[in-house]
Amino acid sequence: MLDSDASTAKTLTLVTIILQLIFFVIGIFGTILFAAFFAIGTVSTTTFNNTIVTTNLPNYFGLVAVVFSVFFLIGLLWILLDYFLIYKKLAEEKVREAETPSIVLGIVQLIFAGVIPGILLIVAYVKIRDSLERSARQTTQSPSV
């Protein structure tokens, strides 16, 4: 059974994953709306000396889809890494194995993916360290039988 610190780290990691999923879904809907706007083709109509000029703007749907697909694949990668390297290890009560991935992913996500998930993972790392220190203290303080 996880102690309170390891349980808190597990909860923080779950919150991180949920936040990343929410940002992921919002991003997908935003991309679909943005791409649909360009897929329809924007028409600009102006009048110049009583002459109507209509200009079709180029279709950027393919370019937008490729660029945002790469961002979403990276976002999906972060979600999967957080789940398999941290959350799943804590759920299996392998607290020591979740220590290094939590700080590494926390720092990398803080730099590249987002401030909130990065901070949450760094706080989870601190809680994992507290849990490991508490179990080490209990091991050294327990009397030998």
> Main beta sheet: strand number and arrangement?
2 strands, antiparallel
Proportion of residues in extended strands: 5-15%
Count of helical regions: 4
Helix content: over 70%
- Count of strand segments: 2
Q: What structural category characterises the helix and strand content?
A: mainly alpha
Q: Strand order, biggest sheet?
A: 1-2
Termini separation = 23 Å
Low-pLDDT stretches are: none
Principal-axes shape call:
rod-shaped
Describe the protein.
By secondary structure, the protein is mainly alpha-helical. It has one domain (4-135). Helices cover 79% and strands 8% of the residues. The chain has four helices and two strands. It has helices at residues 4-40, 61-91, 95-113, 115-141, and strands at 43-48, 51-56. Strands 1-2 form a two-stranded antiparallel ribbon. Helix 3 (95-113) runs antiparallel to helix 4. The two termini are 23 Å apart.
